[in-house]
Amino acid sequence: MKNWWKRFKKFTQLSSSDQLLLIQAFFVVSTIQLGLKLLSFQTFRQLYSNLIRANKSAETPRQLIDREIQAIQKVSGPLSAFCLPQALALTYFLRKDKHIDLVVGVRKSHTFEAHAWVEKNGTVLIGDLPDLDFQPIWTWH
Fold this sequence. Notes:
By secondary structure, this protein is an alpha+beta fold. Helices cover 53% and strands 20% of the residues. The chain has helices at residues 2-12, 16-38, 41-52, 62-79, 83-93; strands at residues 100-108, 112-120, 123-126, 135-140.
């Protein structure tokens, strides 16, 4: 409870645009989390595809992308949202950007591991794990 009060006090000190972005990020990440838990992946993927369908002609300024990443990462901790919900949330926010790719990769070391990240022109925006090597198996343009 004390932790939530501390977060609320920090929230009230933000600008109104940052507060709105955090609320949007909370809604998007929690909806994605819920959809991934309640729906089959095929159903989720179809609904999500309809949500992000847009004319991909825009170029999102890097400063806005950084603010969106920061908001997604801030709300992801309390929601226990890891790489896939974060990558899906950022892809949703950047759905009109023409250079965004959501990538899912795997690696086999001691165990089988999967990871998701978002790239723009080959640069990882969210989900970067520099010391781990995942082989991309699926890219969602």
